[in-house]
């Protein structure tokens, strides 16, 4: 039986740990960090940890001090963390057994922003041919990786959020949207904070996809180091001040994350999803102005120059939205494009979509909190299926831009 807390506390922190991959040892350390603060009279700290092959998935109600094993409250056997039903069940279990006025859900794993490319397709299909059985589902996020970062995965594999090496599965944006919609129904309100302790997740496309179900997000434009969030410092401050609002806790996570890293190039952002539609509206206007300007050679060159100079990340197709708009505004002055760029920047900067943000390291010094997809050679066919594309027409601009840029 799982111990429950019938008294509604001020916060429940729910950490969904997809560790059936190369992050398994980092998950062990993060659970220890959570225990340094632990649950209190006003705070619940719970986690579900799917470990690498040879281990079972366990749920924890984490208390201060002692061994992590002492805090296990349920053993689930083998689970597929990429299955939306497994995530939904964890949320339901957490909310019903550990009620609180506010809830922070953390998705702990690898990340690749908006990209829903199936990185396991070849491996899974090969296994199916051999075994004529196994899970067949679509997937999320791919690109080459750096092995020193949280994004590093074995050999020729790539990145995904809630990636499960054993099940060959992971969660895509449509699934995430449905799971969070279910959480909203369960809570009868929006989830207070969706934290993404994963790489590259602070993108305009991701926020737009889930803005109906979560009030705030916390995530990184850049890849994250393997250590991820410093749970011990975040939870210690929350335990001291459990009355803090979702906005305040979002900003605190950003502050503690940036303070924790002294040598790595890192970014972290807290975003107000209540401003997602307003941001999308300004991007829609910018997309229309840029598309209209593509017929002019000088305008095309200015767009190309701004795109080339803009802050980019480990996935080079991801650029900082404000940095790009600032460069483009400088080149276009008081023109329609310049005005639309200024509108986008104003919608993002503190007081707008981005509540708090920061960066460390020369490589990411021009980061402003939210990235956007801007490929230069080809546009993923999956991109048009996002809510962001339908609302903004950014996908149509990208296709027109790529076509114009490569026209002979």
In short:
This protein has 408 residues and is α/β, with parallel strands linked by helices. 39% of the residues lie in helices and 17% in strands. A nine-stranded mixed sheet has the order 4-3-2-1-5-6-7-8-10, sandwiched between helices. It has a two-stranded antiparallel sheet with strand order 9-11.
- How would the global form be characterised? elongated
Could you report the average pLDDT, rounded to the nearest whole number?
87
Biggest sheet features? 9 strands, mixed
Instruction: Estimate percent helicity.
Output: 25-40%
What is the count of DSSP helices, taking H or I runs of 4+ residues?
13
Biggest sheet: strand arrangement: 4-3-2-1-5-6-7-8-10
The span between the termini is 69 Å
Taking Cα atoms only, what radius of gyration do you get, to the nearest Å?
21 Å
| Architecture (CATH level 2) name of the largest domain | 3-Layer(aba) Sandwich
Q: What is the third-level CATH name, the topology of the largest domain?
A: Rossmann fold
- Give the DSSP E fraction (strand runs of 2 or more residues): 15-25%
Parts with pLDDT < 50 across at least 5 consecutive residues: 124-160
Query: Structural class from helices and strands?
Result: alpha/beta
The CATH class label of the largest domain is Alpha Beta
Count of β-strands: 11
Instruction: Give the topology string: H per helix, E per strand.
Output: EHEEEHEHHEHEHHEHHEHHEEHH
The total tally of domains equals 2
